[in-house]
Amino acid sequence: MVAQLLALGLLAVAGTVAQIEATYDYIVVGSGPGGAPLAANLARAGYPTLLLEAGDDLGNNKNYSDMMNFNLAANDDKSRWDFFVSHSSDEEREAKYERTTWRKPDGSFYVGLDPPEGSERLGIYYPRSATLGGCAMHNGGVCALPSDDDWDAIAESTGDDSWLAKNMRQYFTRIETAQYVEPGTPGHGYTGYLNLTISDPTFMKQASDVQEIAGNIIKEVGGDVTRDINAPDPDRDQTTGVFGLASHADPNGHRVGSNTRIRATLDDPAKYPLTVQLQSLVTKVLFSKTKIPTAIGVEVMRGRSLYQADPRFNGTRGRISRIYAKREVIVAGGAFNTPQILKLSGIGPAKELKKFKIPVIKDLPGVGEKLADNYEGGMLALASKPLNGTAAGPIAVLLKTPTARKNRNIYGWCKSFAFEGFWPGFPEDYGPTEYECAFVHMNPRSQAGYVRLRSSDPQEPPEINFNFFSEGEDEDLTEMLDAAKIFRKAITAKGAPVGPWNEKHPCPGVNQKCTDAAQKEFLKLQTYSHHAASTAGIGPADDKMAVLDSKFRVHGVKNLRVVDASAFPTVPGAFPVCPVFMIAEKASDDILKDARAGSSS
Known about the structure:
By secondary structure, this protein is of the alpha+beta class. It has helices at 2-12, 35-44, 62-65, 70-75, 91-94, 148-158, 165-175, 209-221, 258-267, 334-344, 350-355, 473-492, 516-526, 577-597; strands spanning 21-29, 49-52, 80-85, 101-103, 109-111, 120-129, 176-178, 194-198, 241-243, 246-247, 274-277, 280-288, 294-302, 320-331, 347-348, 362-363, 369-371, 375-382, 395-399, 410-415, 434-441, 449-452, 463-465, 502-505, 509-510, 560-562. Helix 2 runs parallel beside helix 9, helix 7 crosses helix 14 and helix 12 (473-492) crosses helix 13. Residues 1-18 have low confidence and may be disordered.
């Protein structure tokens, strides 16, 4: 594997390479939790497969390989792609986001609401990861399966029963090596590439401030720090309380997933026909000039840090090469870059494409639309003295607040830490007195965001607006506030000398009596997110906003699929990484079935 990657690296040092033309059976664009396992599976089935990644391989860098360093990974300019997004089109509202990022005249960042004179407002920071393994290399690694309804809704809309939750479970057990339940526990796998572990629960056996706070949370909501969060119980989506927080890390805390799956495939003595090319920015998909447009390859720009979101970008334009696929092209660039690639290729809303003089291959109005994300917030407070026991890992808390529509609607994670969203240099360290229950509000009622081109330049990031709270504002904010109140009651139950607590948000101060309206306003203005999805959603052909069919095939063209978080019609549960690993397996089955049948997609 090292030789394969090094060979490419030597070619790419100068920032450009000679034009190369090659042909593979499959070309996979993007090496995240969708693209990497898919490429590995196709190669392991014997099909020559090319995996293209714009970044480098950082799998041996401890910032990435050790899960506990995920904040360092997300801040590392070796992999960062710095996107700056909007939460609405209301400039007055946007101006109140406390962690707004600005570019100072000297080129450095300022974060806040009072920037130095001459600073340029960039927006709300939303980092993505350009490295072998994608965003599964800088995330917190949380693996929580979505509700059954999230899967069943896809089956219902498409008429494809393979999407039913009872049928999707097989993909979870296929990829999993469960190391937090007893061997043989039903509904889990034990031979997959994805090790799943939970935070060490033994802290609950040792008296400490953090142990007592966790105990108070359990008293308030029920549960246990070892409870299986991914158990296939019939009433799972109604079951609330404390659970073990499962993550895709091995028992030594090493990150496993997309990067390790690729490395294992390249290192395997079977010498599977997998080629990985790094520092390769895909600029568009190539199509044949046939009655039904057929994907035949990709155009690639070669070189390091070619995308303007890369903090190391210096204006370089790499040399263009074209690579061809005998069978299919699969785009797995994520919820921001997949729609950009599709549009640059001529797949998307015709009006938008014509604006930038991009020839229209297929008018698909849904490409880049219906951008979805969960809302995130937290109840953060500072104790009156330094807490002891702070080395304890996070516990997971699932809630169903009083006005939840059907299923559990809040996923919280609680420990001595502070997590308040993203900005350059995040998080803020409040010291040894900090304790927070951060939370994700699942299945928000609004899904009105978009990813739209700024130009036809493949190096320029798109315009991204989530349009949060466009619908169901009060209902969603009520559910978020109810979660904050539950966590507040549990945390502040720990009295003197730990209390009284100085709350940072959503009701700042000591023993303050904030109104519900004031707390909702805070939550609305300071909501953050990092689980973007649904910009190339699956749906029936008669839905004009659907981009893919149930087999991940792009409507109206041949030999082109999308396999990443953008394919989900809505955000799958609280954290999409494991659902994306699962759909990579499903897509592998679909593609290989077509290949073995000799059919074209």
